[in-house]
Amino acid sequence: MAKQLTLSALDLSVIIQGGDAATAIARTVEAAQHVERLGYTRIWLAEHHNMEFVASSATSVLIGHVADKTHHIRVGSGGIMLPNHAPLAVAEQFGTLETLYPGRIDLGLGRAPGTDQLTAMALRRNNLNTAYHFPADIRELQLYFSEDNIDGRVRAFPGEGLDIPIWVLGSSTDSAYLAAEMGLPYAFAAHFAPQQFRAAISLYREHFKPSAALEKPYVLACVNVIAADTDEEAHVLATSMYRMFLGIITNTRQPLQPPVPSIDPYWSPDVEAAVKAMTACTFIGSRETLHAQLSRFVEETEIDELMTTGNIYDQGARLKSYSILQAALA
Q1: C-alpha of 2 from chain center
Q2: How much is the mean pLDDT over the chain?
Q3: d(CA 109, CA 92)
């Protein structure tokens, strides 16, 4: 691989069959400790609501827990869905996290609700127009973190004057224009919305305006990676992930299931096509296979950072997957 690639992880604290929220969070902590030892740069947690088998709804609380159980890896949000929250509350929460774990906190921001419309209404008290305020809300957050707000009538304590990197998260070209206009690093959710990925990062780079936060464009791509000793074993492990996406598409969600010899009996051709489209940025295989696949991907996209998420049922296999990926990119 020609360029030195930064490697990071995304974890949703997914609940597995036979587990619960407590075991899901324990799995997340163990994964964070493991990737920290491997030299991963950051681990992010994502905000989701009204999802029975995802335990990361109180994202800032979970970030604090993971940061407390690790030593130096950056811990952040991938992301906080800003329209669900008052910017002041986010500034205070992340100001507190940065105060407790200095130099280790990232604030990735998304525009989507992270849930269905009914739940979004419950979160936003019937104000569903908050998504349209996303750019203004980011600027308000930046103001709360700025030392220039010292004379403001509303100030964030703790938070004011702290250096907390803000990222724009996206799954479409809209977010690319915003990240470029604001001169912020851009993280694209290619692990579930790969369709506009290449167009979005191209637009981001083309329209990027340097800022106090960032001199030149910085692209992070989040992708699915399932690694094992052999390609065959990796493809078996990946059946758990495919069944998870199948449940999303058919609205038959269930805990993350153990792997099966073949996914074919579980989907029809049209559902298979929908799942494969949703997971087009997925890399499955041995160290050698992943090295070849990811070298090509990185060369074509020129990304600066690869963030991986791997929904593998067995925790030992999941941790091993992170190790194999790190070796494949070394």
Answers
A1: 25
A2: 94
A3: 15
